[in-house]
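Good morning C.,

I know you're traveling, so I'll keep this short. The sequence:
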Amino acid sequence: MTDVLSSTPSIQLQGIVHPDSYFQIVEKNEIDWQLWIDVLRGKVAGAIFRGVVNQEIRQQICHNFWHSVSLKQKSDGLPAHAKAFIGASLSKSLEFYSEEVERTSQDIEALFDNTGDFYLFLLDNIKKHLADRGCSLRVAEYNGRQAGKYKMRSWLNTGDFVIVPHDDSGVLKAHHLQGFEVGQIDRVVGVLICLENGEGGDLHYWNISPNDETREALGFKSDSFGYPLEALADFDKITVPICPGDIYLFDVTKVHAVGAKTDDEVNRTTISWSMGFLDPKTVLHWA
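The tokens, ready to paste straight into the viewer:
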């Protein structure tokens, strides 16, 4: 992972800056499926549905996570910002990723044991509302092998952030992921379910989608972790408090970060996956 937060930027960030009508995180107290699709279609940058996952479901998922035989922790060589993790990583080869997907698939699905399968509830509703609009939803594939459906992670502070400023648009086009069909998607939406969080851990979201020339000038290769804060100062920023039970989704081509927790002993734990239109009638999801 590249970390250039402390460097003095010698370039001006270049890329896409959207108007205020787009650059907003719309807040609701229940899941609004039309709004979810509006985010996927690029009509608005993001949405947050407050407290829609009840405490009983959250506690059960977290119990399943912390007791899973597939749980990876610091002693397993996780990155500095990761406390615990279940799922497959796209940071290495597609072959390694596919093997990880297959190895962890049963334990990933077991995260929702005894919850009435809350994930299936979400997926079925998204699929239904897309179908009503003539669109399909399926898991992304690579050479006939399915991608992971979601992953679950708990984070540690890394200085001023849990996750430093970055964007996700360049990752899927990395050389080691060539052939993975998600590389054809221009606008990727990240979906997160907050299961554990104390004070802090806010979403920081800047109105800039940096271009390839900017990433190259900053020395980014297969990731973009560590945009200098000085280089982001001229762009509008939204700061969104994140609470347990919230589901939020947003355009991850824009620079975003997770602020530091005030107490690093308190877990900040999320389930996440990505979505995007492969073509006007097909939405893919993967993790």
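Safe travels,
E.
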